[in-house]
């Protein structure tokens, strides 16, 4: 697994990084990217300027990513443009409101003439205009530090899509039911405001509100009959994709499962260079795996589709823009992770203590972080990343997301009696697994788009693989058959470059900062007794960076009621597991040559490491700033 040559290369490369050697590329204070800054907001955040780290994208690259549609149809465009908030006459899209929902605000531009939030776009399909979301809406981040907003391309959003959709449904219903609100809305939307046109508009709003409320109800997560909101920076994207597919397979019926496994939005840098991408590795990057993954997320953000299969197994009609999704993946190939050191050189972030970080390097190796979190050169265009997966049993983090992907099923609807489009071929029965349904639909959407792409002169053949292995994945340090669905009961350990900009941590965002990640998870009684532990409750919403613990600062809800309090004791929110540095989660034993040690039966020898000291914990956090 880790031979001595590779091990020594790792140590030497880490040493070089800790020494502070870095390129002299500079961040850019950039108006072409059209960021809009607001005064101090209800989260206590403020910034007087925006800066963009050097991530190997110029402003045109960023704007393409922000504004290129993928076939997402959230609402008719004119309705969204003029819709008021439920409780006040201000427009729903007003920058203060979208910022409250933690979408990044933008100035108008030729590609975004109405000044929609970053990643929100106007789409046209079959002669009708819609507002939709691009990948950037969920994968562009911002952290603030002492009055400077650091926009991070490919970084995780802090937005609360769950709250957004609930409030959108409420705004639509309020416009139907409040006569004064409706008249204001109709006067903005209709060229002809006679009674007939007003009634047609009211009926459309009512239908949109009912459909969105039905969607919200179908995706709700509950504990003891009380809703469990996701909060800022988390979303059960898989659960919502599954439910979108099930709903379209059986229109007019209740068909789906609770979307109760929120995860932290992953960063997109290095994505095209991985063999597996999602937290549980449900889709690989081999052949058209990249496109299937992107089609799935387009479905999740409200692509239009008809899942009655076309003749001769030609797939499914949809609004998904296959050409743009292919371009998206190639566009991401040159994106770099942000570097703390570059921003420290510009006096934007505090300087890294390189002496302490050097000690952190030794801790990083001592606690075997490198055996799972592969070190990479972010600048290498040929980088290839083998994902290290840990089984839920071994890493012991919250299992809900992995279990849902493996076990969710429901009525197959239109698929019943058909043969799956994606190998291995099988005939669908009256029920289908969520995973099999999504795989069939994404394959069908790609298949249906191929003739149109060919007619436009676009090569629709499958891209060459970027996988290291076409048949296996690395799970618990062993190469296993990727076709075995049980391998999905695991989570991925990604490379840690840029990790400082991706809080909160663990796959479900249940740990507030890197410092606490190296503490144990404890019960309330243990915490009350004075044990030093991860917080069981913390706040999300502020973008202000905590440069010591490396996460987002904690705002007191009594002073800032807009913040969200994440309770890790609720289902899907557990902060347990990945407690290697706390002396709880075992690691594989490695010999002096860097080789994994096995017993007489060939099984890996495991051991727990001593709990990390405060000095080593601080050193390890400092080291992670250098990646």
Structural write-up:
The structure is a single chain. The chain has 627 residues and is an alpha+beta fold. Among the domains are: 1-28 and 352-377 and 503-627, no CATH class; 31-159 and 178-212, no CATH class. The protein is built from 18 helices and 25 strands. The strands form ten sheets. Strands 1-2-7-6 form a four-stranded mixed β-sheet, with no helix packed on it. Strands 18-17-14-19 form a four-stranded mixed β-sheet. Helix 5 crosses helix 6 (179-189), helix 5 (161-177) packs antiparallel against helix 7 (195-218) and helix 8 (237-249) packs across helix 9 (289-300). The longest helix is centred in the first third of the chain and has 24 residues, at 195-218. It starts with a helix and ends with a helix.
Q: Can you describe this structure in just a few lines?
A:
By secondary structure, the protein is α+β, with helices and mostly antiparallel strands. Among the domains are: 1-28 and 352-377 and 503-627, no CATH class; 31-159 and 178-212, no CATH class. It contains 18 helices and 25 strands.
